Automatic annotation (TrEMBL):
Matches recorded under Pfam families: Cortexin (PF11057)
InterPro entries referenced in this protein's UniProt entry, alphabetically: Cortexin
Gene Ontology cellular component terms for the protein in this record: membrane
Protein known as: Cortexin domain containing 2
Organism placement in taxonomy: Eukaryota, Metazoa, Chordata, Craniata, Vertebrata
TM annotation in the entry: 15-33
Protein location: Membrane
Length: 55
């Protein structure tokens, strides 16, 4: 009665876990590049809108 092809299909929980890990790694890579840019040149990386509102 049970369809064996349905049981061998991709597990939904496993798919969510893989998608979560992939998004987590992408976020980590973006944060590494942003932090490296900030360490390299902190004055250029900061927002200029805060400086214009002070003057």
């Amino acid at each position: 009665m049970e369809d064996s092809s349905l049981a061998s299909s991709v597990d939904v929980d496993k798919g969510f876990a893989i998608a979560f890990v992939v998004l987590l790694f992408l976020f980590l890579i973006v944060m590494i590049f942003r932090c490296a840019k900030l360490v390299k040149n902190p004055y250029e990386a900061t927002s200029t809108t805060a400086e214009s509102s002070l003057s």
